[in-house]
Amino acid sequence: MPVDFRTLAFDTGRVVASARHVGGKIFPKLYAIENLLRSVIHSILTAQAPVGTTWWDALVDQPIKDKANRLRSRYAGKPRHSSPGRHGIYYLDLFDLNEIIRANASLFRPAIPDIDHWMVNIEQLRLPRNVVAHMNWLHQTDRSRIDVLHGDILRLVAHLQGSATITISCPPA
User: Fold this and answer.
1) In the 8-state DSSP scheme, what is residue 25?
2) Does this model's pTM top 0.70?
3) Rounded alpha-carbon distances, angstroms, from residue 139 to 4, 22, 30
4) Cα–Cα distance between 151 and 108 in angstroms, integer?
């Protein structure tokens, strides 16, 4: 297994090996966790909330919507660049996603009875996620935490897909 290139004498090969490890082993799990979480939030709030597909307008706190709108405007000002998507949820980070869950925990609880446990685990992932997003190396505890949450969210989605009341779908891209 490659080691953190910053702990050894500089060598471009070590930087590339670190990139392959962090980008190829850790980042895909974070990508899956974050995007599966977006789909779970979207699907549960669409199914559980009395407002259905308009859950974003009805249930998301205004500061979070404002943040998404500011980021959307920045991307709209640079049309030659890729955009995260049409739905506001694609402009949010783990903190904001967790805030949506927290504010609407009563709507999540019928589908995910241990939603409080999920909120704690998502919160614990925020800092390691940011370390990887800034192209840095995680220690084993954080890598293990990501591995566990990745497996847990895959099981959660499989469980929800087996539910008669929740259809997992992606927010509009």
Assistant:
1) I
2) yes
3) 9, 11, 15
4) 20
